[in-house]
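User: Thanks for the earlier help. One more: Endonuclease/exonuclease/phosphatase family protein. Can you show the sequence and predicted structure together?

Assistant: Of course, both are below.
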Amino acid sequence: MSQKPQGFSLKVLTINTHMGFSATNKRFILPELRDAVRDTSADIVFLQEVMGSHDLHSIKVQNWPDTPHYEFLAEMMWQDFAYGRNAVYPEGHHGNALLSRFPILSYENRDISVEGTEKRGLLYCKITLPDSDKILHTVCVHLGLRDAHRAAQLTMLCELLNSLPPDEPVVVAGDFNDWQQKANKILQRGAGMEEVFSQKNGRPARTFPARFPLLRLDRIYVRNAAVSHPHKIPLRPWSHLSDHAPLAVEIHL
């Protein structure tokens, strides 16, 4: 069940941007994605699979922006942003990013890669809130595809969360690739985190594939915060903008 709002509130959105291409990889849709993200009026946006740079795409793809994708998405709407480079290859790199209407006090990208697999990271940001001495701690997450790798990465996430001040608000969001639905129990027992859709519906939301969502891969977790109106963004226009459905919730501090 949703908890009663209290004090300051903000809206959080999480979306896997799929490198700026449609779910079928046939069209470059980053400008459309930016419009759709803006229409949500989210205060803080958690982004996964965000392109930092790509030398070949910048030459061949029409409408490819001159700036990194996270800067292009943030332009004139979110005053601050952070980027954590994870996957690096000859043509460029991609990773997680966070867009914020509020100042980002500091950020770091923690490597949680398992040896011999695709690079993964936790983008941890400390955000200052208006008219408040509270610090909001946020972690943008994109975990691995294998169960054993996710288990190790969730342990590292719990270690980070347990290092934070115990009474300050925390929001963790992103693509957990947790089709077996093990993360809720691990994060609740290991770090006191609650998943917002599970609070309301008993289980995480279905988000993948976006057109016909079956798997519950994407999550928003909170600690020391109340929530209301957790919802999956409607299929249109989102179903062709990513292979994951975006999630949003109101956070009350």
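User: Great, one quick takeaway?

Assistant: Confidence is low (pLDDT under 50) at residues 1-5.
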